[in-house]
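User: tokens in, sequence out, please.
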């Protein structure tokens, strides 16, 4: 039997939906204009490609999900094979945010660490890399500027 919620919770949900719609419509855009501004990418339909950044040491592949041509900000799925993934490097013009969907790395003491669900942030200009990947890994990367290196 389906659990009934208190009336106040139903009211809160209806109000939240109405406020959300009002917020969207305050811009006086039609539904067509709103949906044209929303990006939806089916990553399964994108081909894996070689990334243009030259610091990878293994056959790293990427699927660019979004890129702002004005700022260089980029979001990409990146697949790392087993091995030392990259050289020590920094991104002088971009903060880097990563979320590991699946994968495993080895730390300095040789301990294997599952990384599924881990989030990481590296500020602009901070050196990082030389990750030793011990199981094929899939990560979501976001750079808030061009991900090129110094």
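Assistant: Sequence out:
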């Amino acid at each position: 039997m389906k659990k009934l919620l208190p009336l106040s919770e139903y009211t809160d949900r209806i109000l939240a939906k109405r406020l959300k719609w009002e917020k969207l419509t305050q811009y006086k855009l039609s539904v067509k204009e709103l949906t044209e501004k929303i990006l939806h990418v089916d990553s399964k339909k994108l081909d894996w490609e070689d990334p243009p950044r030259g610091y990878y040491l293994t056959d790293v592949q990427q699927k660019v999900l979004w890129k702002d041509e004005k700022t260089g900000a980029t979001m990409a799925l990146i697949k790392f094979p087993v091995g030392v993934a990259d050289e020590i490097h920094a991104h002088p013009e971009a903060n880097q945010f990563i979320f590991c969907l699946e994968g495993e790395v080895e730390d300095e003491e040789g301990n294997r660490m599952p990384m599924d669900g881990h989030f990481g942030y590296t500020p602009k200009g901070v050196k990082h890399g030389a990750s030793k990947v011990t199981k094929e890994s899939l990560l979501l990367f976001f750079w808030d500027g061009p991900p090129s290196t110094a």
